[in-house]
Amino acid sequence: MSTNGINKALKLQFGLINYENRYLTAEAFGFKVNASATSMKKKQIWTLEQDEQDGQVVFLRSHLGRYLASDKDGKIICGAEMRDPECRFLIVPQADGRWALQSEPFQRYFGGSADYLSCFAQIIGEQELWAVHLALHPQASLLSVARKRYAHLSASDGEISVDSNIPWGVDSLVTLVYLDGKYSLKTCDSRFLSNDGKLVKENTNATSFTLELKSGKLAFKDCDGKYLAPVGPTGTLRSGRCSKPGKDELFDLEESHPQVVFQAANKRFVSVKQGVSISTFQMEIDKESKKSMFRTNGGSYWTLVTHGEIQSTATEVEVNTMFDIEWRGQRVALKASNGKYVCTKKNGQLSAVSDTVADDELLLMKLINRPMLILRGENGFVCHHKNSNTLDANRSVYDIFTLIFNDGAYNIKSVNGKFWYVSSSGLVCSDGEKSENFFLEFLEHGRVAIKGSNDKYLRGDQGGTLMCDGKSVDASSLWEY
């Protein structure tokens, strides 16, 4: 089993912002497009697809699953269900990081404002330039294409090193911070990567990079026009000498799965070998069955073996490696594929032999690779409301919150150092002096539900406000994290 590229590279989704600071929007009615929106919601999100034969050619797919196309007269429509010849575009990157989009069959450039969009310009002017605002969740693992190694914080050396075989632990989490069209790379200890490879507390010109795309991979261009690359034996991430991105300067963003540790009722931590230090396990949720697998950093999975024992010996995902998680407030219970609950035996061995849940079947599960929490729901990111103590759940920008573990529950700390709490009317407020418990339930691949102390779920309401009044889990109460 290859350890590199262990998770799928994230599909590149983004908003395109024109010269008037408006987002390209795909309307459901008549498959029309305009550039009138001031923020990025569902209608403003585009997915980039590449032509398998010609890596330079791209297709832009709307939230409706239709493709952007231009005819010979420059008329723009977004109704094609298939990738027709008229849907073929070329990206022409500019020095400031913006894109010009050129129709491949007709060689004309796409631009305009409001309802007046066309693809008829023969040269690139200000109206034909689009800024790219990534729409994917900004916390990910960063994989070097050339080295086939992952970036991680090397705290002792004060740098980001690109020398991990697998993205393991909180050190491998990179947060992309978007500001004024540029991106910064933030480490798990809240420092920013500077172009000289040093980690600094403040976000400055030297920590701001323009994002470029080349053959579906990302390149980060600094304020001097040079690109980030891994340098030297440990792969120190810093700007190199190149002013054109080659293979060394290309990266993939990969989804970062939750990684957890378990503690049994006997206060011992679950580990791969007895007496070995605590083992961290990666929780991978099957998209179809919604069951969970637990992977070790050696690449093997927990599995049910004879006599109900649980071992970490499976190399492939199969029925016996799948577990149902029951969320019981501050503890979880795991049910194996034999329908029995996992319990801790007197000798410390985990076995799936119980029909009911008592103390021995309850485990404390702690999420270890999300010290910073960024939530994205079906309508956008969670962000402080400008003029009150409430939170919005429909923004195209995000705030970074701090997640603090508290005996199986979590406290959520705001940017201002105050805590989240739920008001008597079910509003989530962000100015609490005292912390309040919330419970994370990992229910779907890449999605978490969050339950308040009132036993209700967090959801975004119609007006875009974050509420804690959901009686059950639906699309409005599942969050990318």
From TrEMBL:
Any Gene Ontology biological process: anatomical structure morphogenesis
InterPro entries to which the protein is assigned, alphabetical: Actin-crosslinking, Fascin, Fascin-like_dom, Fascin_metazoans
Domain of life assignment: Eukaryota
Localization (cell): Cell projection, Stereocilium; Cytoplasm, Cytoskeleton
Stored Pfam families: Fascin
Cellular component annotations (GO), alphabetically ordered: actin cytoskeleton; cytoplasm; stereocilium
The keyword Iron-sulfur belongs to this UniProt entry's keyword annotation: no
Main location group: other
SUPFAM superfamilies listed in its UniProt record: Actin-crosslinking proteins
Keywords recorded for this protein, A-Z: Actin-binding, Cell projection, Cytoplasm, Cytoskeleton
Molecular function GO terms recorded: actin filament binding; protein-macromolecule adaptor activity
Protein name: Fascin
